[in-house]
Amino acid sequence: MIPQGEVTGLLTAWGKGDQNALNELMPIVYSELHRMARRAWSGQNQGNTLQPTALINEAYLKLAGAESASYQNRSHFFAVACTAMRQILVNHAKSRQTGKRGSGQFVLSLDDVQPAVNQEASEVVALHEALEKLQAIDDRKSKVVEMRYFGGLSIEETAEALGISVITVNRDWRLARTWLVREMSGNGS
Amino acid sequence: MNPQASWEEVEHLFHQAVDLPAQERQALLASASAPVRAEVESLLKADDKAFFAAPPVHLAADLVEHQPGALTAGQSVGKYEIESLITIGGMGEVYRAHDPSGTPVALKILRRHLVASPHAVDRFETEARAASALHHPNIVAVYESGDSPAGLFIAMEWVEGRTFRELMSAGAVEAAQAINWGTQAAGALAAAHAAGILHRDIKPENIMVRDDGVLKILDFGLARLAEPVRIEPNSVGASGTISGTLSGTLLYMSPEIFRGENARSASDVFSLGTLFYEMWTGKHPFAGETPLDVFEAIECRLVAAPSTLRDGIPHEIDALILRMLDRDSANRPSAHEACEVFSRFSERP
């Protein structure tokens, strides 16, 4: 268990430009989100969808503490958490792609049909790769996509987390989407 | 991205153009420099609606619910105790387990959230019940199916042996052996058809031969759980033939299934005929370089009689296999008839 003060301290340090603080923060947030996601799901009815935003909020309250952290720290935390969500999903998607195997004895005949999850796994990996290219051209737009798609943040929450206007998020989101879809379809010039 | 088009210019023009009616958009684009215009036009063509419409919910659900091989020795699923993980698949896992009396079982677990539609789950439950009513020495017995916190499960007879895929890997099978296996496999299928149950996914991976020579057909009626088959153009193996999961799905599928018609008993007969052909000749009758080639072969290719590929195939068996592969399902023999032909040969000294 990570003491709350430590996370708050790291967030503040990162807010002041300390990149090492971010490096320390990321694994903490990553493992907490991962753990919470599993707990949130277990015991609930089938068909529920994972709510990344709810998880991130909960993780924030838990790790940083509601009162001790500043408004600015909260925004910073959301940025870290969305990156962590992206990593969690991309890592899982990759393990899905390589983890498929069938031994001689009992092969699941059901594997013949590509389940929705495998489809999404390859989409997420493709998006992740396209997003890395976008980041090289326009870092802010890649962050917007990370927060909207992987973190499940609303336009307003994204604006708050990045410290930019709602109008800018809307415009970035729109252009980034078309750029990424074109990139993924292999028609990039 | 075109190196000659500045990103700022592209961005600016994109936002100006994106909400304009077609005519005004054309006029605006015409006023831009060629590289910027080309870049923006290509972006405006991209349709981002489908991709970003929904977050990857299945993947997220999979992440938190499904830890491949999550069940460990000693854990219980229904009344069964897990011993070890046998295989992990896209929709679940198979474990070796045992019931309270110590009898080993193969426990197939299906993760509900990985199955594409709720309808498919219903069908799975119905068919698992139907399959459990089948009692035949050459059909893997389904003991029980049910629901558990780990997912839907099917407990079935544990079979120690080798699959047809492994047995045929060395090429054509010796005639006496092929006759014996043919009798057992066709007999099992005939019994299922008599009970009104289709297999729907006869292929070498679904037939095993125990070390004592008893053949067992696996997974009756359990296949075809999800939505229509997806054809992946990139799943062609280095060997030039279709590899991996696709081979099983496609290469043993009857033409009427390709056409989207409902499976019938003759569809199983076709699949078994394909397998017999391979068993006798060592060659697949519909092998192809790409999925499309296989489609075309199953729809159109003239199948050479097995006897043209191997000497000594009895005429009756030669003709039987060709009839099993008739494109018109009405012309195919029943599984019962196929079994009778093989058993006549197996009785001969």
- End-to-end separation of chain A in angstroms reads 49 Å
Compute the gyration radius of chain A: what is it? 18 Å
- Oligomer state equals heterodimer
Percent of sequence in beta strands of chain A: under 5%
Q: How large a portion of the residues of chain B is in β-strands, by DSSP E?
A: 5-15%
Q: What name does CATH use for the topology of the largest domain in chain B?
A: Transferase(Phosphotransferase), domain 1
CATH architecture of the largest domain in chain B: Orthogonal Bundle
**What is the general shape of chain A?**
globular
Major sheet characteristics of chain B: 6 strands, antiparallel
Query: Total number of helical segments of chain B?
Result: 14
Q: If you average the pLDDT of chain B, what whole number results?
A: 82
| Element order of chain A: H for helix, E for strand | HHHHHHHH
**How can the largest sheet of chain A be summarized?**
none
Q: How are strands sequenced across the largest beta sheet of chain B?
A: 1-2-3-4-6-5
Largest interface: A-B, 60 and 72 residues
Provide the number of structural domains of chain A: 1
Helix content of chain B: 40-55%
Q: Number of domains in the coordinates of chain B?
A: 3
Q: Please trace the helix and strand order of chain B, writing H or E for each element.
A: HHHHHEEEEHEEEHHEEHHHHHH
